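Hi R.,

As promised on Friday, here is the backbone we talked about, encoded as structure tokens. Could you run it through your design pipeline when you get a chance and send me back a sequence?
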């Protein structure tokens, strides 16, 4: 699902810069807990689809990230293990934040509320890859006569 390429050199350059900014943020997310990784690479692939098919393919071919970006494009969502990992990571980061910010209970409350929104989004809005594949497989099954 590639986007329509940008028209003109300036448009392409803008999408290319945006793509590399997203790659930078996604790369930072690999190191910084709580900063998303895959989302930024999804955005990067989309930006590159408007500016550089070569860099779009580069993102899609990345060993750990590429399959997740391709799954997103195919409407498969996240694997259950990725959802579990994200939830545990969010809980760990929020716990550390709560301990660090315990003298500011209002801020802790806001951080916890945002974490709850993030976890709810992961579990209730983002499709689970295994469920989508099972549903697609059942839709493809040909009923047999008895």
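Update: got your reply. Pasting your designed sequence below so it's all in one thread:
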């Amino acid at each position: 699902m590639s986007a329509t390429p940008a028209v003109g050199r300036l448009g392409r350059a803008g999408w290319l810069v945006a793509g590399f900014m997203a790659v930078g943020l996604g790369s930072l997310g690999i190191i910084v807990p709580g900063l998303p990784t895959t989302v930024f690479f999804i955005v990067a692939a989309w930006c590159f689809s408007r500016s550089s098919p070569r860099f779009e393919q580069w993102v899609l071919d990345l060993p750990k990230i590429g399959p997740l970006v391709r799954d997103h494009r195919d409407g498969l969502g996240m694997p259950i293990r990725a959802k579990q990992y994200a939830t545990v990571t969010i809980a760990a980061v929020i716990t550390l934040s709560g301990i660090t910010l315990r003298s500011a209970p209002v801020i802790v409350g806001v951080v916890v509320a945002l974490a709850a929104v993030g976890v709810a989004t992961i579990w209730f809005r983002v499709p689970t890859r295994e469920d989508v594949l099972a549903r697609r497989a059942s839709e493809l099954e040909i009923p047999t006569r008895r």
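One thing I noticed while checking it: The two ends are 41 Å apart (CA to CA).

Thanks again,
M.
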